[in-house]
Amino acid sequence: MSRPSPGAVPSPNIWHHTATYELENTAVDPERRIEAAMAALHDWSGQRFLDLGCGTGFHLPRWAERAGSVVGVEPHPDLVALARRRTSRLAGVGVLQGTAQDVPLPDASVDVVQARWAYFFGPGCEPGLAELDRVVARGGTAFVVDNDPTRSTFGDWFRRGYPHLDPPAVVERFWSTRGWTRVPLDVCWRFTSRADLEAVTRVELPGPVADAVLSEHEGLEVDYAVNLWWKRF
Fold this sequence. Notes:
Blueprint: H1 18-27, H2 33-41, E1 48-52, H3 60-64, E2 69-74, H4 77-86, E3 93-97, E4 110-116, H5 126-135, E5 136-147, H6 153-161, H7 168-176, E6 181-190, H8 194-204, H9 207-216, E7 221-232
Parallel strand pairs: 1-2, 1-4, 2-3, 4-5
Antiparallel strand pairs: 5-7, 6-7
Helix pairs in contact: 1-8, 8-9
């Protein structure tokens, strides 16, 4: 039986709640502000794009709309299979099993990298950063998307759910001292049903916190602040 790649850091949401995470991918950032901010910093038209921690490959078709080639890397074999199925008819798109700290690609083989809510959460991800130094070609750009817990409705929920995580100041210092730049973005979750919003919230937050925030929040939309970290190589 296939197993996750050695050294893989388990994801508590998509690994165990794949279908619900698909709902979240569909709901988050419907205006594609994250992608627009990335493209303004580095246009990947015709270039080699790497999606690290690509999960089921939800974003791979989007990158393929303009990239010359796209590779998704994912440590969980079941998600790799789903990503390959999703992209099987797309030319120039491949999916490999591997980890951020052991990327199965040659040196200087990609121009743009995205890691979206995957592995690169601040202190502790130094092995992955070393791999970015290796695989990103000169002039390339890496992007990391993560929560901004200092603001927005979801930021408040996140702080309540995970008070033990590194303080935002520690995370910001970690990235800035390594040459990364932060772009704060305001996106949202936008669902088509209350049931979907509640299901995703319960995947993302501990049970008692999910119960509390859902009792306080009405409607189908949640404002959501993110940090887009980026670095040119």
